Amino acid sequence: MGYGYLIYFLIIVLVPIWAQFKVKGAYKKYSEISNSSGMSGAEVARKILDENGLYNVGVEPVGGFLSDHYDPRDKTVRLSEGNYYGTSVAGAAVAAHEVGHAVQDKQDYAFLRFRHRLVPVANLGSNLSWILILVGMLAHLSDLLLLGIVFMAAAVLFQLVTLPVEFNASNRAMDQLVSSGVIRNDEEKETRKVLNAAAMTYVAAAAVAVLELLRLILIYTGMTRNED
User: Fold this and answer.
1) How far apart are CA 94 and CA 80, in angstroms?
2) Bridge partners, residue 61, by sequence
3) Which helix (H) or strand (E) element contains residue 60?
4) What is the per-residue pLDDT across 3-46, written as a single tens digit (0 to 9) for each?
5) Per the structure, how many domains does the chain have?
6) 41-77, pLDDT tens digit by residue?
7) Which residues are marked as active site?
8) 171 near 198, Cβ under 8 Å?
9) The domain containing residue 202 runs over which residues?
């Protein structure tokens, strides 16, 4: 049992680290290679937005490393300064990916809408679940532990729903980058490596969350069995 727990904890620690290593490595490598069009991330984002009729969506620089995101409340694509001003393959890929979320928003993409509805529940679950779980385990209160598991399941569901949202945005990004002429066909492989590496961080986070949820369910079933 001791070795099993050791392996489990190594997995939940090492998998996210590995995913972060992959994305940072791919980003660093391809942020040093200019895209063939010579367009900055801001220009790429603006071009793809305009081609999709999203003239009302703004593009702004934001501080931080890989802090790029689309804000559906402000209808704004925000790109980290390196991607906003730079002309790299990585910057173009990230910019197009974030625009992919803006296009999803315009088209009322089902998984994106579902994820938005889950935000309040997921936030509550993330903040409250571990308090309930720890108290339930320490006090041997199975009902309280179960409630914590339910809240945690809501947060895990949010992470699972995030996967199709992110993969769809990356697929849209590849299509738009090629069709708009931002990258050549021979740059597709490098661009996809950046997008796939970024996607792995979401896959790793979801996998770890599911494993942890399953572990807690097993603890709960063992606790209820002992109570009987």
Assistant:
1) 10
2) 79
3) strand 58-62
4) 667 777 777 788 888 888 888 899 999 999 999 999 999 999 99
5) 1
6) 999 999 999 999 999 999 999 999 889 999 999 999 9
7) 98
8) no
9) 2-227
